[in-house]
Design a protein that fits this description.
By secondary structure, the chain is of the alpha+beta class. It is 42% helix and 12% strand.
Length: 289
């Protein structure tokens, strides 16, 4: 009588198809296609996160209509998280890491990169390889050439939010700077520091080092609140005041400090909290700076 292992081997040889591919094409037990991806992810993280041997949710763990490709076709790319977009781009995982894990590692690396990283650096990431690294590098460069933030003009806080909102789903606070020229056109968008779950630590010199390198005439800073609470903290007020004082010495126009979540934002300037201003400058006055 065949052992279970021998029986499975025989089935695989007959089917000439990895059995796990068939098994993964089925929905997870207890998951129905009427749930949203965020519900699946929340349930998965609640049940499995941190347990030994469990990996981040793979697209193949989802019902077909909730997988990233299907949702992109149905709802458009803006409905997907950064990790999901990258998982579509790199297409597959390895024996050690599934595609979601690779996408997360890649996203963490890109978050820490001040500019588009060369393919040689991407290749060094575990599991990437030349094919995936070249595809990512080509995508980043093509996107920069065709639809990048460079050159777009900041006239209203909502213009800032469009450029940075993809950082809102991060689990840690990210402090972001936007370098602008005299016409308030974007020269660069950078993640300056990555902080804790409810706090980011930033020093003015880290902000101004990039601004000086970009030969910026003006700038905006922003950071996400993972909690979704948009009210500024005393620490937020302190760093805003320090940046404003330093910008006056350096002759740079400090346009705004924005706090944002996935769906909303809060502007220091729009709320009249930019100190040492001649008057209460509203959002409509951005273009008059």
């Amino acid at each position: 009588m065949l052992s279970f292992r021998a029986y499975i081997s025989a089935v695989i040889s007959v089917m000439k198809k990895p059995i796990m591919q068939t098994l993964y094409s089925l929905p997870i037990a207890g998951m129905s296609s009427d749930k949203s991806y965020s519900q699946y992810l929340a349930e998965y993280q609640a049940n499995y996160q941190g347990k030994k041997g469990k990996h981040p949710l793979s697209p193949l763990d989802l019902p077909p209509d909730q997988r990233p490709r299907e949702r992109l076709i149905r709802n458009g790319p803006s409905s997907l998280s950064d990790i999901e977009l990258l998982s579509i781009l790199i297409n597959s995982g390895t024996r050690v890491k599934n595609v979601t894990e690779l996408a997360k590692d890649l996203l963490d690396f890109l978050d820490k990169s001040k500019d588009i990283p060369p393919a040689q650096q991407l290749i060094k990431l575990s599991g990437m390889g030349k094919t995936k690294a070249c595809a990512v590098s080509a995508m980043l460069e093509f996107g920069r050439r065709r639809w990048g933030a460079l050159g777009c003009s900041i006239k209203h806080p909502s213009d800032i939010f469009i450029l940075i909102r993809h950082n809102a789903d991060r689990k840690q606070e990210r402090f972001i700077s936007l370098s602008l020229n005299g016409a308030h056109e974007v020269l660069a968008v950078r993640v300056v520091t990555i902080g804790l779950v409810n706090r980011t630590i930033v020093h003015p010199r880290e902000v101004f080092a990039d601004l000086i390198q970009d030969r910026a005439a003006a700038f905006v800073v922003a950071h996400n609140h993972p909690s979704g609470q948009l009210s500024p903290s005393p620490e937020d007020d302190e760093i805003t005041d320090r940046l404003q004082k330093a910008s006056g010495i350096l002759g740079l126009h400090f346009l705004d400090h924005m706090i944002f979540s996935e769906t909303a934002w809060w502007s220091y300037r729009q709320n009249g909290k930019m100190n040492n201003e001649k008057d209460h400058i509203t959002a409509e006055a951005f273009s008059k700076f």
